[in-house]
Design brief:
Layout lengths: L15 E7 L4 E6 L5 E3 L13 H12 L4 H8 L3 H10 L6 H7 L5 H14 L28
Antiparallel strand pairs: 1-2, 2-3
Helix pairs in contact: 1-2, 1-5, 2-3
Length: 150
């Protein structure tokens, strides 16, 4: 359940109110009168925990749907290509993503279909998390102290 329903994600009550506003973009923090649960208005949406504003996300989706590459879209919008890849990864057609994109970001269904077709054409994940361990990167993790002196 998400705030898109206008209900508390914990108890399902519709008795919620704005208790605080936070961040540069003035995101609303809500509180349920029934159970006291506090949550962000972005909770349960594809853009939860993203720092990018909604207008920039909507522009990025439209550019990708028009056939622009990830690099050119990122360049036009002034963002890193990896950030754009993380955003696009969340826009997969699962759950209530389409409902959120059409209702909140005001992206029409035709544009969404074009976006998802563009994502299918690439046949890979837009974002591959960086690995941190030496074995996963293909390097040996063994280190012998003083071996460089031999």
């Amino acid at each position: 359940m998400s705030y898109l329903d206008g209900k508390c994600p914990k108890c399902g009550s519709d008795r919620i109110y704005v208790c605080q506003v936070y961040g540069r973009r003035r995101t609303r923090f809500l509180r349920c009168r029934a159970c006291g649960y506090r949550f962000s208005e972005r909770r349960g949406t594809p853009i939860f925990n993203l720092k990018t504003d909604e207008a920039k996300i909507a522009k990025a989706i439209r550019y990708i749907a028009e056939g622009h590459s990830i690099r050119s879209t990122a360049r036009k919008l002034g963002m890193d290509k990896n950030t754009l890849c993380r955003i696009l990864e969340r826009m997969r057609p699962e759950g209530r993503t389409a409902e959120y994109l059409t209702r909140v970001l005001r992206i029409d269904e035709e544009t969404l279909e074009k976006l998802w077709k563009a994502m299918e054409r690439r046949k890979r994940s837009f974002y591959v998390p960086h690995t941190t361990s030496a074995e996963e990167k293909g390097r040996s993790s063994t280190f012998v102290s003083g071996a460089h002196l031999l």
